[in-house]
Design a protein that fits this description.
With 121 residues, the chain is mainly alpha-helical. It is 58% helix and 0% strand. Pfam families: Tryp_alpha_amyl.
């Protein structure tokens, strides 16, 4: 049974529409809780209780960096971390700034407690 070109075109369009519906879209990168969880092992270093970041801290930093693939997700994480940092008064601000580098993560911007999250690329 031969189909006309318009029927074939309709079938192709329906298949494309079906694939778009069933293909999972990436979800929002991370919740604030997930973001905080990834770096929770860094608190001892950031609070001057350890002389260097632990391997689990750096693993969390790498994981967080790899999960934040969009400007929106980086800005959301920034807002979350900035808000959380205000709650812990004993954090060493210079350690916050140097943490990514100490863990071997290159950022195109500098982090600090005074960062303007809406300017994060």
């Amino acid at each position: 049974m031969a189909y006309s070109s318009s029927v074939k075109s309709l079938i192709v369009l329906l298949l494309i529409a079906l694939m778009m519906v069933i293909t999972p879209y990436p979800t929002s990168a991370l919740t604030c809780g997930q973001t905080l969880s990834k770096i929770s092992s860094c608190l001892a270093y950031l609070d001057n209780k350890e002389s260097s970041p632990s391997s689990s801290c750096c693993s969390g930093i790498h994981s967080l960096h790899n999960a934040l693939t969009t400007t929106k997700s980086r800005r959301e994480a920034c807002t979350c971390l900035k808000s959380a940092s205000k709650e812990i008064k004993t954090l060493n601000h210079s350690r916050i700034t140097s943490l990514p580098k100490k863990c071997g993560v290159h950022l195109s911007f500098e982090i600090s407690v005074g960062i303007k999250c809406n300017s994060v690329p």
